């Protein structure tokens, strides 16, 4: 049911990315293409990784992640960029299996954390993550340079 993504999964992963963005009320912000996903997940030196969930022979969920590094711990960690399971198959444990697989990967490799961001209004996701033992890091605030601010900072 849970397996590492293959290059043949790219169309399904992009479809699920779009479904997630639609759920998060941001479908208009998706710019990713199949070519970009193919290059980043399966290029010469991949820096992004994915697992998928199959149900009845069809990809219905995915987790896309990359490595982080903690200077304090001196070890890598996993940053979960996206985790999504189609609404019609939720409640069957697929999200838990995906998160468990990432935890297993981190544990086997000696990484000390798996972390991610969740929208404050996404109560079902927050409850799911907390039921898995995750705790919010309330003392940290995410900052981001993007768009014009990124361009300005790069050129200053």
TrEMBL record:
Q: Which UniProt keywords apply?
A: Acyltransferase, Coiled coil, Transferase
Q: Which CDD domains match?
A: NAT_SF (cd04301)
Q: Does the keyword Acyltransferase apply?
A: yes
Instruction: Give yes or no: UniProt keyword Plastid.
Output: no
Instruction: Give one Pfam hit by family name.
Output: Acetyltransf_1
> The N-acetyltransferase domain covers which part of the protein?
1-155
The record's section on InterPro entries has:
AcTrfase_GNAT_prd, Acyl_CoA_acyltransferase, Diverse_Substrate_AcTransf, GNAT_dom
The record ties this protein, via PROSITE patterns, to: GNAT
Q: Which residues form a coiled coil?
A: 13-40
Q: What is this protein called?
A: GNAT superfamily N-acetyltransferase
- Species, as recorded: Actinomadura algeriensis
């Amino acid at each position: 049911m849970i397996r590492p993504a293959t290059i043949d999964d790219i169309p399904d992963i992009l479809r699920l990315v779009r479904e997630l963005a639609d759920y998060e009320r941001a479908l208009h912000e998706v710019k990713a293409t199949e070519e970009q996903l193919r290059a980043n997940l399966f290029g010469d030196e991949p820096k992004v990784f994915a697992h998928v969930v199959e149900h009845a022979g069809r990809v219905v969920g995915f987790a896309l992640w990359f490595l982080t590094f903690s200077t304090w711990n001196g070890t890598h960690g996993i940053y979960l960029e996206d985790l999504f399971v189609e609404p019609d198959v939720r409640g069957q444990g697929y999200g838990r299996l995906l998160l468990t697989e990432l935890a297993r990967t981190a544990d086997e490799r000696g990484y000390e954390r798996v972390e991610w961001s969740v929208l404050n209004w996404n109560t079902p996701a927050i409850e799911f993550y907390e039921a898995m033992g995750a705790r919010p890091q309330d003392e940290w605030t995410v900052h981001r340079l993007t768009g014009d601010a990124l361009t300005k900072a790069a050129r200053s």
